[in-house]
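W.,

You were right to be curious about this one. When I first looked at the sequence I had no strong expectations either way, so I just let the prediction run and decided to look at it fresh. Below is the sequence, 206 residues in total, followed by the output.
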Amino acid sequence: MQYRNFQDLEWKPSALGIGAMRLPVIGNDQSAVDIPEASKMIRYAIDNGVNYVDTAYTYHLGNSEVIVGKALKDGYRDKVHLTTKSPLWLIQKREDFDKYLNEQIDRLQTNPDIYLFHGLTTGRLEKIKKLNLIEKIEEAREKELIKYIGFSFHDSFKAFKERTLAPHTKVFKYRPDMSTVPYRFRGFYQPFKSNEILTIKYAILY
């Protein structure tokens, strides 16, 4: 396995990670994850050098975090950096941020290393500002519920630059620890191009 330098963070992520959005399922029911097969896949990846595991509140209709948490038992948790994400579209008031984070910690049976605002778009960035969720995510880090903060981005590269990097519009007071951005041939979101990816110094691609 190859590993990458990742700015000033205290770890080197593997060139490949494992995402828990599309685990094997039984039949066509996305909530009916084949737990033994999914656990075997996750552990096989870790045994072969993967040290980054990514999940989210809504993956597999809410079951992904539970399954990932179980797969990381028996010493596997200590071998990876674990990411999950705050479901911005479900948050209606500031207190909801804490509610979902606490539920996610219960589901995972561990604290995530990395906590991201999930699926940022221009509209969701405005919600972060309106509810001052930056303060909430920073409070969670101060309480040592999480180690690193950032966001996943579901919009164009132009919006990425204008809404997260430009000094007069950016949401974060300082550079976030990491982001995940789309880089694929097919998918729901407009992928970033190779030359655009190279300008982002703290991104993990999916």
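Here's what jumped out at me. The CA atoms of residues 154 and 188 lie 9 Å apart. And, maybe more interesting for your project: Residues 185-192, 194-203 have pLDDT under 50 and may be disordered.

Coffee later to discuss?

I.
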